[in-house]
Amino acid sequence: MTVLRFNIFLIASLGVCCCISMAETPDFGNNWQNAHTFSADGSVVEGSLNTGGDVDWLKFIPSPQYIYAVSCSSIDAGYTDFQIFSANKYNSMIYEITSEESLSSTSFTFYIYCETPAAIYVKVYDNDGDYEISAWADRAFPLDSYSDACSSPHNITLSGQTTVI
């Protein structure tokens, strides 16, 4: 009887181990409010999507007045969709910077000008499989001297001949 109990325990233990190994590790946030924060220093974040509509959200906080490169790669043979969003200055909502980008065993790099330190979000979804994301400050891009307010526009003077068609 002892041998039978041990075998049942072993089979039950193996079943639990199989379930645990199939779980997404790590399981990044499923919405932008719970996005996983990563460093925009060029290091790679590896993730995995499970079947059944899994969505991962990741974010980084940029230094202002830099152009950032964000690289997204689909590792598996399927495709993975990526979208990039930015938070407003109050970090209370986000807006889309890129449209949906489908990747099929390739990678894309997006360049984003970050005038402020508003968080940049990456949404990863569609298809199960592994992916990689990295971001880095590509180059400094200082602010111009022109006003951003419509109430105080910068005047320009046009000279030369104008042709009206």
Residue share in β-strands: 35-45%
Q: How many distinct beta strands?
A: 10
N-to-C SSE series? HEEEEEEEEEE
CATH topology of the domain at 27-140: Jelly Rolls
Helix/strand structural class: mainly beta
Distance between the ends: 99 Å
Describe this protein's structure.
Residues 1-23 have low confidence and may be disordered. The strands form two sheets. Strands 1, 3, 5, 6, 7 and 9 form a six-stranded mixed sheet that branches. The protein has a four-stranded antiparallel sheet with strand order 2-10-4-8, with no helix packed on it. The protein has a domain at 27-140: Jelly Rolls (Sandwich). The N and C termini lie far apart (99 Å). Helices cover 13% and strands 39% of the residues. With 165 residues, it is mainly beta.
